[in-house]
Amino acid sequence: MRSGHSNSVADIGLRLDELIAKPPAAADAAELLTLGEEILEHWVVAKGNEPTQEQREGFRLLALHRQGADKDPSFNACRETCRELAYHYNLLTQQADHPDTEQRARMMGWVARHLHLFISGKMEVQQLGDFCCASRPLREKVDEEMTAQ
């Protein structure tokens, strides 16, 4: 990837788990946003494209989402997740001393994790997201594998 990120999809998930477990703080906002960008980069690359360096509404995350949604309407299911990640980034960077900072940082971690789960799941099951971010295709796959054993 041109951005220089070398984290695998699994590594991104592990780092998000670490941040959520500690719990995240306002100082983690930039890293959480970057991890969101990285998972979107993986999606864009998986579709055979070069990740954009452009921004939409001041965020590369939103430009990457737009690029990833091109010709894939089901990918729009995570648009609001991307916007919420950007929203929490703004809250944490513009109001770092707010009384709700700890809860906001925790929420940003959960939102970043949700984005990771959606995209990593969608990379496994293309139809994931046809109905919101339902994981039914993934659950059915696991159920079928368990039944076969």
Question: Could you write a compact summary of the structure shown?
Answer:
Helices cover 63% and strands 0% of the residues. It has 149 residues and is an all-alpha fold. α3 runs antiparallel to α4 and α4 packs antiparallel against α5.
Question: What does this protein structure show overall?
Answer:
- The chain is mainly α.
- It has one domain.
- 63% of the residues lie in helices and 0% in strands.
- It is built from six helices and no strands.
- The chain has helices at residues 9-21, 29-46, 60-69, 79-94, 101-124, 136-148.
- α2 (29-46) runs antiparallel to α4 (79-94) and α4 (79-94) packs antiparallel against α5.
- The protein is globular and about 45 Å long.
- Residues 127-135 have low confidence and may be disordered.
Main sheet overview: none
In quaternary terms, these chains amount to single chain
The number of domains: 1
Q: What is the ordering of alpha helices and beta strands? A: HHHHHH
